Structure prediction request, 80 residues.
Amino acid sequence: MASITIRNLDEEVKTRLRVRAAEHHRSMEEEARLILRDAVGPKKPPRNLAKAIRARIAPLGGVDLELPPREPGREPPSFD
Prediction:
């Protein structure tokens, strides 16, 4: 495992870290590790845009669209 040294840490920040660690029954070092792990944690998978749009629109209800019948595709152009 790697080590890190943090210099010039404000006393107020150090005190708040100590209090937070004590509240969670952890050492300051373990508390700092967990804070850093949460802050830069594992990379999240990219959001699914379609799913996000559906989730946002779903509470508004839906719309029934009449789709036109499918037709055969047109002939490709001839370059003769």
